[in-house]
Amino acid sequence: MIVDVFGAPSDLGANIRGANMGPAAIRIAGLHEGIRRLGHTAIDHGDLAVDAREQIAEEQQKVNYLPTIAKLCSQLSDMFYLSKKDGNLPLLLGGDHSLSIGSIAGMGRHAVETGKSLGIIWVDAHADMNTPQSSQTQNIHGMPLAAILGDGHPDLTQMQRYPFDPKNVALIGLRDIDGPEKDLIKKSGIHFYTMREVDEKSLFAVIKDALGKIKTDMLHVSFDMDAVDPLYAPGVSTAVTGGLSYREAHLILEVLADDGRVAGADFMELNPIMDHQHKTARFCVELVQSLMGKSIV
Ligand SMILES: [Mn+2]
Fold first, then answer.
1. What stretch of H or E contains 205?
2. Ligand 1 centroid vs 145 CA: distance in angstroms?
3. Average of pLDDT values for 148-155?
């Protein structure tokens, strides 16, 4: 398998800074060796060119950097689309989670052109289902899943060519949801699994349930590092206690690898400023390896 690696060094979707350094930290933690050790080929396409926040602050602060985020997402959409056209596995290194609007738009474009169906497994402590109407902060990294499903800033929703069926979308790891967002999730028709479900039924039961319900040809996995408990992944912008354990995080990706339908992936929100001695970046590389077929024996 050929893995196309794309770095998106932007934290413009968040108000806490630092996720823009995520791609570098993941590479330094040994991403490429990790992929190659599994027998795959890693081709690094480098980082998107992202303006410094200070360069664009004055004109774009008021609109939460929407024009720049939309431009980056549209570039990522092209990159993911072309990677799929080559028959490869595109892998996005974040960067804040707003950038998944772009990677998934590219996956959707590929799905439309090839007539294949596409589902999403979104692993996250948060729902990322806010809309410009519901959001208290207006941070765009709180809105990507809603935008992907068609509700959000037109600059972000218009690039989605694939009409996602909410029944083909699963959110796993939830434990921190804004008040108005609760209603949006319930009304959306997506499958969602909170940490309570993970505790009650086991992570294995939860991911198997989601994969049983989502019967699409392809899956895109969007993994927010904050889904993992801060004990194992302290290097994120918005840490929430009570998350996935070390093994639960691996297991979800191991089961996805066995499933065989994963066609694209994002690993998002790694914030090296918050990290302890590179721990979260190294864990991120381990998780990428699990998704790419690394097994214990
Ligand atoms: Mn997220």
1. helix 203-213
2. 9
3. 98
